[in-house]
Amino acid sequence: MKENFNSRKELTDSMANAIYHGEMSNEKIAGLLSKLNKDSKSPPNREAKTNEKKVGIFTLRNIDGENCFVRDQKFKADFPYWNKTMNVIKEKSPKKKRVVLLGESVARGWLYEPLHAPAEVLEDILHQHFSQDIEVVDLAVTSINAREILELCEEALALSPDAFVIYAGNNWKQSVIACLTDAEGYEIYRELVSGKPGYAVISTLVSKAFSRMVDIFFIQLKRITSGRNLEMVFIIPAFNLMDFQSSEIEKEMFMPNLKARAWMQARAQGLNFLEKNDLESLAKLAQELIDLNSFHSLGYEWLAKCKLAAGDLKSAKKLLETACQTAIYRVTSTSSRFFVGLKEPIVKNCHANKVHYVTMDEVFEQHLNGGLPDRTLFLDYSHLTIKGIELSMIACAKTLIKAWSGAEAEPQIDSYEIKCDPQMASTAHFLAAMHNNLCGQSFEIIDYHCRKAFEYDKRILSKMNAYIRMSLSKTPWKINKESLAFVGNNLIQMGMFRYEPHAKIHSALLRSIGKILRENNLAEDLDVILLEEHTISGEETDLLTTKYAADSMLCMTELLAKEKGFYSEIKLESKFYFVASFQHSVLAKLTYRVPGGSADKIKLVVNGKLQVELPAHPKWSTHSFDIPLSDLQSGINELSIHWVLPSSGTGKNKPMTSITDLNEVISPVLGEIQALSVREEEHLLSKPSINNLSEVINIFSGEEIERDRSGDLFVEGEELII
């Protein structure tokens, strides 16, 4: 084992050095990677090892004298990632053409499968518009990466395909980062810790990684398919530019070695301009944000908003694509997406390798008469609505028919339309609302999907009612009596219960559902449930549970690491909620530390009112403080901790030992919490009075909690210069 490890290490070190100095061709790299991959184990939960001939989760079996690939129980752990209904892939009929569709969750038709999976839609279109009989085999796999797609392509040759359709690119971030050599990673690191990182230098290195990754992918694809008489179509994904914006954490400052205090001041001004709809001032401010930190998405998004208002779609599109691509520079989890930097290398390689391609952003732009992709085509960041699936598969079918027929002009398939069951459409939009909430999206987009769900099928109200009650309840969902409302409904089958760990007492989703229920006279007792379940008492209530944290899933990547036993925060503000009866003052208790320490003080704020300032010590310390009755409100209260900016250049004097050292430069931990609790200072002998519900902050009205925004807590003091 040790000899094998040493030889692999020597090989990878040699490759990295040669790549960095341009001494090795991509063909040679691909060959060496292929050699390395033969010794590599598959990632966890992705296909157990087997010596039998297989295609993904399907193993070759002889059934009644026919060689078929059958869903194999040994891969049961992977079943949720694959088509739910395809159990057997029969031997190919000589009278049929066979298309194999490979790709990620977008290619699976997330939330509409299996009835309206892209493979099913493509087969239906081809049946209607091509003279020969066609079958489409669905090998799309949720969360599959570039290397796994290539492995699946190689296995799928056993199905004797006439065409491969590859609809992928949304999950390629890690593959791109892996194509950065250690030397390139170190160069990026040096740029970042210099205090004046050059965007041009770093973006050029990332662009090289985009091209290198795509080149290697197509070299491997050519090796796999060489000598095979099959057509190949690559569908280049699009991104929801208009309606999927940066999450809360993505709008926060990162890369503090830039002019962090100046950036925070500019952001505070920008928020004021947004509130006043002063787009002229916002445009100037947005450019200032970009100049201060070109790696951050916020400036590009704000400037795009101004360009859209001025009718400049071309500039807005470029800015939003750049904003989307800034996720490549983040070490924290972001929503999966297609980076525009991949498009040109893919198109170039398609031309060079005679692979047909479909660019979905152009298809969508044509459909929208020059408009930008939006919520009519996307459920979230990348997953498509019925219309999006329809347009993508029509474009794919046109490309295949043209390739097979040899005709110069594309066939006309403009009359095709998917007839989606209203209940399925309603379910898809309700789950999309849950998912957008999880991804930290705005109340407006979450409310849009909730209302679309109600528009498609009024019966969804009973599910919404049950959902909000389960979210407010402390009882686990699977044993909650409200879960009976979902029996026989495909909300459970489509993964609703995976959202349970992120159900909170206060969120945009609950406000939207509550507002719709109230409009339909179904929300009379929701405030009562909230108070009965969550009003704090004389016993401590732990605010580090996800029920009381404000962050969405993608904002909580550093939240509570159980193996560490404490909460790590990479944002400048940590927000939590608790429910008070408005009868007694509250005692809060915090155990915290600030890595690296600072001369500045952290601030604890309740409902927008400053409670206490605490030293930013690097060692653990515990503090208790009273929250007076005058600062509380009956119902939900917001407690926020405002951390401080690092006082010196993060990592400036530390040598880089691996690419992972970039983490503390890009998104350093600003504060850590071991414990945070609240309790009433006097024991209540009886349950809180809930007779006067007019005093309760109504979280189901669609309005956010009011906060004192009279000043910014972070813009005082001199600019941080590193």
Automatic annotation (TrEMBL):
GO molecular function terms attached to this record: hydrolase activity, acting on ester bonds
InterPro entries linked to this entry: SGNH_hydro_sf
Gene3D superfamilies: SGNH hydrolase
Protein name: SGNH hydrolase-type esterase domain-containing protein
UniProt source species: Niastella populi
Taxonomic lineage from the root: Bacteria, Pseudomonadati, Bacteroidota, Chitinophagia, Chitinophagales
